[in-house]
């Protein structure tokens, strides 16, 4: 099957599966990550097909969104094989998807350039103005507070603690988002992350100024 035909089917599959996903991992997240992955792949001279496919399909087996990651990965492998993607390419795509997640900073390092590119693209969409919006959507979907001054951000945690432990939207900045700029894999990723990182820092300054308005002022 022609690569473009497979890509078109992957776009359709991701759109159908994630169109109503309410945690910020919806189709438009996939659309943005795929666009970023294609941009970075061109600049870094990577395999654009692998990058685009992995970006399109990465949240179909995300443990935050599915009950059985292993089973969903098997189904995705079957889908790729049915669409005549070569076995080595399937393994490459699934390896990227399987190691993409942040997991509280405990995740496995990407072993290929294409994996590093897709990971950068996914992480860039987690920061900046869009990243802030997604953080609050995710917190709301998971029943977390916006902020609790008595709940300190967690510094050391397992992947399970990161997923299941109690946190807030603002704490998520410290537990993940503000760390991502330094974790970019590619030069292009680092350049794209810089301005978004600065915007988050500015946002937090403004957030705390509004949160603390009137404290000790007699208002």
Automatic annotation (TrEMBL):
<protein>
    <submittedName>
        <fullName>HD domain-containing protein</fullName>
    </submittedName>
</protein>
<dbReference type="InterPro" id="IPR006674">
    <property type="entry name" value="HD_domain"/>
</dbReference>
<dbReference type="InterPro" id="IPR003607">
    <property type="entry name" value="HD/PDEase_dom"/>
</dbReference>
<feature type="domain" description="HD">
    <location>
        <begin position="26"/>
        <end position="127"/>
    </location>
</feature>
<dbReference type="Pfam" id="PF01966">
    <property type="entry name" value="HD"/>
</dbReference>
